[in-house]
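[Discussion] Sanity-checking designs against the backbone

I'm trying to build intuition for which residues belong where. Below is a C-alpha cell string of 75 positions. I'd appreciate it if someone posts a full sequence so I can compare it with mine line by line.
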C-alpha cells in the first residue's frame, strides 16, 4: 500500500502510481472529503458539465428521435 508523508508546510506528495491511476497532473483540482476517521481524495471534474455527466441515465437517450416521429405524425 502506497504511503505519503505530510511536509512541514502541510503538503502531501501523491505517489506516482496513484497519480497515474487517477490521471492526476500538476494543476488539477482535487476533492477531499472526510468520512469517519479517513480522508477520501477524488479528482475534481474539469467543468460543471463533466460533474453532471455522472448523474445521466439512458432513460432519455433516444427521446429526441421519438419526439420527431410524434411531430411528423401530427402533420
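Best answer:
Here's mine. Compare freely.
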Amino acid at each position: 500500500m502506497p504511503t505519503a508523508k505530510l511536509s512541514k508546510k502541510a503538503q502531501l506528495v501523491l505517489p506516482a502510481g496513484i497519480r497515474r491511476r487517477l490521471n492526476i497532473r500538476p494543476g488539477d483540482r482535487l476533492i477531499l472529503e472526510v468520512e469517519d476517521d479517513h480522508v477520501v481524495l477524488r479528482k475534481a471534474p474539469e467543468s460543471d458539465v463533466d460533474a453532471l455527466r455522472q448523474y445521466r441515465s439512458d432513460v432519455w437517450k433516444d427521446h429526441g428521435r421519438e419526439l420527431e416521429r410524434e411531430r411528423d405524425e401530427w402533420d
